[in-house]
Amino acid sequence: METGSIIQWGIKVGDEVIEGETAIAEIETDKATITFEATGIEGYVAAILYEEGAKDIKLGEPLFIVVE
After folding, report:
1. End-to-end CA distance of the chain
2. SS (H, E, C) the chain
């Protein structure tokens, strides 16, 4: 996988992100559609950097910003 697309966000600005409990987004790749879950992060969503439907986002690009 080199790129993916945001199918649907599961979060919005101001939402609390809890590791292992928060479904961040549905991401579509060339092979599958997966639910991206919070792992290794907790806090509150400060910004979402891509809109739903954004395509060809490179692997490793930040998708959103979380603050304490």
Report:
1. 31
2. CCEEEEEEECCCCCCEECCCCCEEEEEECCCCEEEEECCCCCEEEEEECCCCCCCCEECCCCCEEEEC
User: Pick from 9, 10, 17: which is nearest to 51 by CA?
Assistant: 9
User: What average pLDDT does the segment 7-22 reach?
Assistant: 96
Rg (CA), the chain: 11
**Six-digit token string for 67:** 């603050």
Per-residue pLDDT tens digits for 24-56: 999 999 899 999 999 999 999 999 999 999 999
Per DSSP, what are the bridge partners of residue 8? 26
Rounded Cα–Cα distance for residues 63 and 38 (Å): 12
Beta-bridged to residue 58, according to DSSP, are 3
d(CA 11, CA 54): 15
